[in-house]
Amino acid sequence: MTGFRSAQSLLTVSRQILNAPMLDKTFMLEALQLSKQALPDCRPNPPVGCVLVRNQLIISRGYTQKPGAIHAEALALEKLSKPMSDVTAYVTMEPCSFVGRTPACAQSLIDSSV
Ligand SMILES: [Zn+2]
User: How far is ligand 1, taken at its centre, from the CA of residue 67, in Å?
Assistant: First the structure.
């Protein structure tokens, strides 16, 4: 008997084995993969991917939409309810800080307590 009572227990132990930097790479790679889905519709805006993580699990994803529509961070945020103080955002580009046709993503992340 291994001591693992369920697949969830095994999953929990597996996550503990992975060190934090490895997890950071994994989540960032996922965000990069997501950014590819933004193309070509996001043009001329840059393709950006965002994953939101809680307890080492991805809980929401987003990528840049068509010009004038919400950005990757906002798309990921709108799927969750506030507050998100225990959530970490992995984004492939520095979140925007300007208000144009859409709200500033940096402020939206702050307002959500991410
Ligand atoms: Zn933005």
Answer: 11
Q: Which domain holds residue 101?
A: 16-111
List the CATH number of the domain containing 90. 3.40.140.10
Which one from 30, 73, 78, 94 is the annotated catalytic residue?
Answer: 73
Cα 17 to middle of ligand 1, angstroms:
34
Residue 3: alpha-carbon gap to chain centroid: 33
Instruction: Flag whether 28 is in a domain.
Output: yes
Q: Are 63 and 47 in contact (CB under 8 A)?
A: yes
Q: How far is the CA of 58 from the centre of ligand 1 (A)?
A: 20
Is residue 78 annotated as part of the catalytic site, yes or no? no
The predicted-structure confidence for 8-52, as pLDDT tens digits, reads as follows 766 665 666 566 588 999 999 999 999 999 999 999 999 999 999
What are φ and ψ of residue 26, in 5° steps? -60, -45
